[in-house]
Amino acid sequence: MVDTFADALARIKNALAVGKKEVVLKHSNMIEEALNVLKQEEMINEFEVQEGEITVTLKYLEDESSFLTHIERVSSPGQRIYVKARDITPVLNGRGIGIISTSKGVMASPVAKSMGLGGEYLCKVW
Prior knowledge:
It is a single chain. This protein is an alpha+beta fold. The protein contains 3 helices and 8 strands, in the order αβαββββββαβ. A hairpin with a 2-residue loop joins strand 2 (44-50) and strand 3 (53-58). The chain starts with a helix and ends with a strand.
C-alpha cells in the first residue's frame, strides 16, 4: 500500500530542492488539511484542488531560496506516533511547526498544545 502522505511530503521536498514554483500531489483529505495548516502558517503560498489532484504553489524568499528548508515525516502507517498535549514541544525552538491530527482536525502543534489536544504527530516542517 502506498503512503500518500509521505509521497506528498517527498514531492514537496524534491520540488523545493530543484526550485520548482508548483508541485502536483495526489488528493487526500489528510493532505488537504495539512496544506491548510501550511497555508495558515504562511509556509506555502496557496493550493488548488481539482480532479483528484492538488496543485501547490510553493513560497520562495526574495533571494530565490525556498521558504521551507526541511520536511520530516514523524508518524507512518507502520509505526504511528501519538503525543499528548503536555508532551508537544516546539519545533526548532519555535521557528518550525509540527502538524498533528487531533480529534478536532489537523492543526499546527502550538495550536493543538494551546487547546489541550494531543493526537497523531504527522510531520515536522521548518
